[in-house]
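Quarterly update from the structural biology core.
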Amino acid sequence: MADKKIGFIEAFSIGVGGMVGGGIFAVLGLTIALSHGAAPVAFAIAGLIALVTVYSYVKLSLRYPSEGGTIEFIVQGFGNGLFSALVNNLMLISYVIMLALYAYAFGSYGSALFLGSDVVWLHKALAAGVIVLFALVNLMGSFMTGKTEDVMVFIKLVILLVFVGVGFFTIDPSRLAPAAWTSPVSIVTGGLMIFLAYEGFELIANTARDIKDPEKNLPRAYYAAVIFVILLYIAVAAVAVGNVSLSEAQKAKDYVLAVAAEPFFGKTGFTIIAVAAMLSTASAINATLYGGGRVSYLIAKLGELPRTFDQKIKQGYEGMIIIALLSIIFATTFDLENISIAGSAGFLIIFSLVNLANFRLYKETGGSRVISGFGFLLSVTATLVLLGYNVLHNPHALISSGIVIATVAVFSYIYYKIEKRDSLARFTDKNLAQQEKEHS
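Predicted structure, tokenized:
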């Protein structure tokens, strides 16, 4: 077993870095368009679902510390059959969608920075280019180290905190007043459509085996990361709404955070935020290509994770290329709203199942069925509200999401039948399998 080297701060940074990747830069304008002055409330609603789901992640991470993370919990909760394989592939495509979201945001802010507005050809060229760049970097093995990612997390957090700290002094309170809010359904839907901005805390689960004093540090890292990000998002949304008129926000919805910095920092603020957004999204693309996406691909192909690091690198090369190509297709053919709905729906479904897994495994995890059951019902209800709202108001975007999910399901079924393998390993992580064998 590897030496345990990760402490609370490192685990906290992984969670915060995973969440504050590119989501807040990409989807803030979408939230404002749906919720208007209630954008901070929308972020709080989405954050509540993440916070309740954290309980199940804490319990499952302590009981099943595994590099497989979320998919390990699904296998333990629902068995290692075709259903768990399908969920893993849904998670893989959800990571692809996240990459597309980050690339889309990179293109939006880059185009605004270089040409002053969102120019389609440059936007798409930058979105595709940044994915190709980091796919090549990863393929050469010259990936950013954890320390570099820590520095990136620190830089983007400092910029966002300065944005919040200075921006509060120029807020127009009337823009945040209830009179400026939309209907409750639109506010809730606004939160659910950008739920993927909270995706990332689950990356802590993949490191659970290497955390010092997990009984103490894992719960603290999970809860501290999510609560910190909820408060940060609420504050960022409040400053953005309070400094930008609704018409301005809608005009520049793909790069609204940069526009929101202009009232108190001028053109320099626009440039700083645009550069920060590009650095953040590039960092998130690098980390997602190397991290969650690779793990899901390896489990999809092999049914489990290889034991050695060298095998993971070797087996992951083709996965890197496939994931990058799919991400480019999504980033250049789907619009932001379509990407956001598909990504949020994917992670809401996955988090529903994680809550249900903890509900079913309560004797193993020592968890409360009331809390995990509430998390399951909350996540399912949120999924239904998100889908129902878009059936009525934006069916085209929903058709796109439906096609993606249906394609994943059909492909998974055919693939596993051709391979004559309709299950994953009993434990996706061989180290966990050895641990369970020793304890039995």
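The CA atoms of residues 80 and 424 lie 5 Å apart.
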